[in-house]
Amino acid sequence: MKKVYENARAALEGIGDGAVIMSGGFGLCGNPENLITALAELGVTGLTVISNNCGTDHQGLGVLLQNRQIRKMISSYVGENKNFEQQFLSGELEVELAPQGTLAERIRAGGAGIPAFFTPTGYGTSVAEGKETRELGGRNCVLEQALTADYALVKAWRGDTHGNLVYRKTARNFNPMMATAGRVTIAEVEELVPAGSLDPDTIHTPGIFVQRIIQGRDYVKPIEQRTVRARAGRA
Which pTM was predicted? Predict the structure, then answer.
């Protein structure tokens, strides 16, 4: 099975209006930049996007919001995007918020074939409204449904032509679990190497989970909020 695609646009073949998409990244760290840009250019609409957050006004998934391509967001943190706030308050954007750990576990469960699980997180709050609850081990728990997607877009540091992936430091974040939860997983990598080049003990995502892979290019790797301190001796 050929997994290497010429570019991001080619790798997105088949994605249509109304698709459910997972997108890796935490803030702007570990975002599949090339795939997001190509998705914006593709112009598909009515998307449901599962991601920890939705980028910023002009970067990351925020570009798709600007284009009015997203119908629903399933996220944990949405505080860096004014477009998100405006579309949500106007009723244009449907939003499902989940505690960050719960979101991660819902994705992991989806990739592991576990349809649902109980967690104490969120019990007694609005997160639990309309959900089954049960006392387990003396703690009140909420039943949370697993998450899967039509397509998972992930970013890795290195990958080989068989789709094996290695992530780097904090850019690992949500990418590995999302790679297992997409019916079609599309990976972009900074370095694409021949099969057999990666040390098997360093591989984070086995190639069996990846259907398409591209060599990324022109990475910006923006920083959401640059926080620095004054040099010694300066105010």
Answer: 0.93
The whole-number pLDDT of residue 198 equals: 98
Q: Is residue 105 part of a domain?
A: yes
Q: What is the pLDDT of residues 66-92, one digit of tens each?
A: 999 999 999 998 877 888 989 999 999
3-state secondary structure the chain: CCCECCCHHHHCCCCCCCCEEEECCECCECCCHHHHHHHHHHCCCCEEEECCCCCCCCCCCHHHHHCCCEEEEEECCCCCCHHHHHHHHCCCCEEEECCHHHHHHHHHHHHHCCCEEEECCCCCCHHHCCCCEEEECCEEEEEEECCCEEEEEEEEEEEECCCCEECCHHHHCCHHHHHHHEEEEEEEEEEEECCCCCCHHHCCECHHHCCEEEECCCCCCCCCCCCCCCCCCCC
Whether the Cβ atoms of residue 154 and residue 177 lie closer than 8 Å to each other = no
At 31-53, the pLDDT tens digits run 999 999 999 999 999 999 999 99
Residue 24 sits in a domain whose CATH number is 3.40.1080.10
The number of domains in the chain is 1
Bridge partners for 153 per DSSP: 23, 186
Q: Which domain holds residue 170?
A: 8-115+146-215
